[in-house]
Amino acid sequence: MYVILMYDMDSKRVGKMLKLCRQYLNWIQNSVFEGEISAPKLKELFAKMKTIMNEDYDSVIIFKYRQKIEISREVIGVERNPLDDFI
Asked: Is residue 28 classed as helix, strand or coil in its secondary structure?
């Protein structure tokens, strides 16, 4: 499946979450990731996220797509992490 993931965390946990998400997905910009991931790997990522985050304070939003789709993506300003393969 193809996912777009974004999070909002307390500054004490941002670095740990960034490091974790980079192991599974492509970093796009501050707290935003995208990429192909299998259902078991996504479940594994969720489990690891829960060990880092405080669910009473932090949030994670994930958009899931069954397959990679083509949509137009436009960046205005600085491209934080240019990718050759993006949605």
From this structure: strand
pLDDT at residue 86 above 50?
no
In sequence order, what are the beta bridge partners of 35? 3
Please, are residues 30 and 81 in contact by the beta-carbon 8 Å criterion? no
0.90 exceeded by the pTM? Answer: no
β-strand partners of 46: none
What is the per-residue pLDDT across 24-43, written as a single tens digit (0 to 9) for each?
A: 999 998 899 999 999 999 99
| Cα distance between the two ends of the chain | 12
What gap in Å lies between CA 25 and CA 59, rounded to an integer? 18
Q: Nearest-CA neighbor of 33 among 2, 66, 67, 1?
A: 2
70 SS3 class: coil
* Domains with residue ranges and CATH for the chain: 2-59 (3.30.70.240)
